[in-house]
Design goal:
This protein is α+β, with helices and mostly antiparallel strands. Helices cover about 45% and strands about 15% of the residues. The chain has seven helices and five strands. Strands 1-5-4 form a three-stranded antiparallel β-sheet. It is globular and about 55 Å long. The two termini are about 25 Å apart.
Length: about 210
């Protein structure tokens, strides 16, 4: 996947695009990911039964303060107090302003859509207990949320476009992130990639 993204950056540079591979915001992405999971799990907690909420509240109260595992973040998000939600939301909006500064200098941010290409289906155990292989090493499947959270946390538009295949024939995509409300720039860039760089190819056995 890294090779595919680097090949795209090289292609863009060769065709007159200004590419900066070291451009960064001043955002602490470890903090951003933690806030994203907290708010995400808070937003999806409504379907808990009262009994499940009480169990999760008990589990949250017994967590080590330094525990930043996905499970701990999930349980805290499932039982978040409104005051803590407001603090997380405030932090989210401060990050939005930092992204605004970034997009004053750059039109788009190109990054992975996920930490790996498609992985074998696995429904054994709880989600936070499952792993996938990244660079040959098992990592939690929930780490995949990191790349989705970059744009989702702060409400930035994003479009994912295909840019090639892995050595084993799995599709690789690039996530195209733009400044707030500039959805058409992301979609337009994806359209350019399809016409000038790489177009979607249906897998063998599938019709267009």
């Amino acid at each position: 996947m890294r090779d595919a993204l680097e090949a795209l950056a090289k292609f863009l540079a060769q065709h007159g695009t200004t590419v900066n591979e070291t451009a960064r915001t001043e955002i602490d992405f470890t903090e951003a990911h933690g806030i994203y999971v907290r708010l995400l799990r808070g937003a999806t907690s409504r379907t808990q039964t009262f009994e499940a909420f009480q169990r999760n509240l008990h589990s949250a109260s017994n967590l080590d303060r330094d525990d930043q595992s996905y499970f701990a973040r999930m349980i805290r998000g499932n039982t978040i107090y409104y005051k803590d939600w407001l603090d997380a939301d405030e932090a989210r909006h401060r990050m939005r302003y930092k992204w605004l500064d970034f997009f004053n200098d750059y039109d788009l941010l190109l990054c992975p859509a996920a930490a790996s290409a498609a992985c074998p289906h696995d429904s054994v155990g709880e989600r936070h207990q499952r792993t996938i292989l990244v660079d040959g090493k098992p990592v939690p499947t929930t780490d995949q949320l990191f790349w989705a959270g970059i744009s989702t946390l702060v409400g930035l538009p994003t479009t994912v476009a295909p840019i090639g295949l892995t050595g084993s024939g799995l599709p690789v995509g690039v996530q195209i992130i733009g400044m707030g409300y500039d959805d058409l720039a992301c979609i337009g860039f994806a359209d350019l990639l399809e016409r000038e760089y790489y177009a979607f190819v249906p897998p063998p056995g599938y019709a267009d």
